[in-house]
Amino acid sequence: MFSAQANRRSPWPTREQRAEEREAKRDAVLRTAARLFKERGFSAASLDEVAACLNVTKPVIYRHFASKDQILLECVSMGLEQILEAAADAKTIPGTASDRLLALMKRYAVIMTEDPGMCVVRTGDHELSEPSRKEFRRLKRKIDRVIRSLIEEGVEDGSIAPCDVKLTGFAITGALNWIAKWYTPNGAQSAGQVADSMASLLQGLLARRP
Amino acid sequence: MFSAQANRRSPWPTREQRAEEREAKRDAVLRTAARLFKERGFSAASLDEVAACLNVTKPVIYRHFASKDQILLECVSMGLEQILEAAADAKTIPGTASDRLLALMKRYAVIMTEDPGMCVVRTGDHELSEPSRKEFRRLKRKIDRVIRSLIEEGVEDGSIAPCDVKLTGFAITGALNWIAKWYTPNGAQSAGQVADSMASLLQGLLARRP
Predict the structure, then answer these.
(1) May I ask the CATH architecture of the domain A69-205?
(2) What is the SS3 assignment for B187?
(3) Which of B127, B108, B125, B74 is nearest to B178 (CA)?
(4) Which residue in A132, B97, B189, B209 is deepest, having the highest Cβ count within 10 Å?
(5) How does pLDDT run across A42-90, given as a tens digit for each residue?
(6) Taking the complete model, does pTM exceed 0.95, yes or no?
(7) Distance in Å, alpha carbon of A175 to nearest chain B alpha carbon
(8) CATH H-level, domain B73-210: superfamily
(9) What is the ipTM metric for this complex?
């Protein structure tokens, strides 16, 4: 009790405050970098610009990240982790596997309208170093597997028509990923509306047909 | 008669032969470049490598193309023109608009398994110069319009269920374009089989549902 009060009054941040601040700084660098990579492409965007957007200089960025490659990897990982998180949440939804897949597709579509998601789709494998590329591919494969397993579950519980699971999975991720290529926030529909419509439309790929 | 025979015997090529040879050389450069751009990405692939693959040196390439940017633009244009050609052919098919769209989707999917088509999908707008980027976008918009007009025709002739035409078009092109990202010729299915299955699957997006 005494020590907590002392900490609250001290002009020096606590260990927790320092960690939080550090996290906030890393996060700001990643979000700014994701936006610039998206706008100009990875090679054209410079860390000097990222730094300038945050009112600091490049050496400050290097206190948090070893290289531009590491920043790109963390940007795309942020987008991919968001999808994996959406998948984990979707798995807890009661009902059929088709319901769970629909929920995942909606969240996935929204992620594709945001900077980290756009970065995922706009980043070519060759833009990353060899070890980063491996990690990028590992995360993408993980997402492919999650989608395929939901389709398989749906075929088992009868909520999805028997199909070529791999191909259907690729059709779904292709249509969802492509949102990152065409979506602009200036359109008539909000990101949420686009996401809901796209997810419902893609259910047509799964529906039992005569 | 006499002059034709003389030409046939002359060791010098005719004007037509020279034009053909020139075309064959341009084509070889573009196909080699498309393959290398696809394999390593545009910035990593060098024109020296393209030249070496063709047993010549870079200055020979520059006799046919002004710049690496022009070569990339012509590579992606080759892929996009193939799709527009497929669309023009599809338009002549009798039957419903849904039949025509199915035929186009099959050809489109095959194009996505080949180097120029893969180049289209793997090339980011920012990798091209400003004027080339404009041309790249113009061709892509033309394809979007062709697909949308086929969907609209289908809604009119009753072969396609009423839908959000723009969104449905993007779902189709997204799923088709994504083939260029995942397809490898080492898979169990041939390009033609993948294309046929994907096109049939995507019909699910267009089907009249209860």
Answers:
(1) Orthogonal Bundle (1.10)
(2) coil
(3) B108
(4) B97
(5) 888 999 999 999 999 999 999 999 999 999 999 999 999 999 999 999 9
(6) no
(7) 4
(8) Tetracycline Repressor, domain 2 (1.10.357.10)
(9) 0.89
